[in-house]
User: What shape does this take?
Amino acid sequence: MSEQQKIRHYLQFKDFSADEYAYILERAAWIKQQYKTYRKYWPLEDRTLVMIFEKASTRTRLSFEAGIQQLGGFAVYMNTRDSQLGRGEPIEDSAQVISRMSDLVMIRTFEQSIVERFAANSRVPVINGLTNEYHPCQILADIFTFTEHRGSIKNKIVAWIGDANNMCNTWLQAAEIFDFTVHISSPKGYRLDDELNKNIDKSRYKLFDEPADACKNADLVTTDVWTSMGYEAENEVRKKAFANFCVTEKMMSLAKPEAVFMHCLPAHRGEEVEAAVIDGKQSVVWDEAENRLHVQKALMEFLVLGKVER
Assistant: This one.
């Protein structure tokens, strides 16, 4: 097998097996412990991560940039507006050049096809930092966070309330790998993309018209902003469509007593979630945000070095 064929990319959640995820989550916990106890761990010393942003971000940039530095490497930030990618250079050409000058590439963009075309022409691993269709790094952090607080997510119920977007699509892929069920409740016009999810085992999810029904007996309740980046022109229309899809204390009371609440952030209190919920005792959103850092460190280590013996 050639060196090119050995390269692993992380473009969708389904790119890794259950065994590989078990390893990555274990590594994330160990790497997090090193960070919390101020122990230097530089497995990627002198390695370079290129971060390409077409969509701006706080958590994605900070977690990847701080993460690679904490592993001993360097981060190079590129915005498509300030590079040849934003001036018409073919993605394929950019991938050939950028991957010859780096060890890892993370891309946060719009269409999934962009990261796929880049990866097809890259000599180094490519990570999907977010696309319109999928957000694998966030769900990896969410599952790690749930595991920290409640143990295995196997056989649990995740209630997704709101737009059946990239997060929802990724939860469905995770459900197949980790063996849990997703309850989805979305308003008309913003429901699950059947074509995109046609290969998902239908026993892995249930659809609900009423968000409260989706929350019943859930182990984890999660949501997202009503208007994601790139859809700002639809903001007022979406506010009307999603008016009944705010995660409330009453909804959380229908979930299991030990259920946790998650949100990938940024959040709009009073819109997709009540302040009493996101700031309440069941909320783990701040741990969830921090854990982007730790799971992505484990992810980068795995993509560059494979399984590490310790």
Remarks:
- Strands lie at 48-53, 74-79, 104-108, 126-130, 157-161, 181-185, 205-208, 220-223, 260-263.
- The chain is about 40% helix and 15% strand.
- The CA atoms of residues 133 and 166 lie 4 Å apart.
- The longest helix spans residues 285-305.
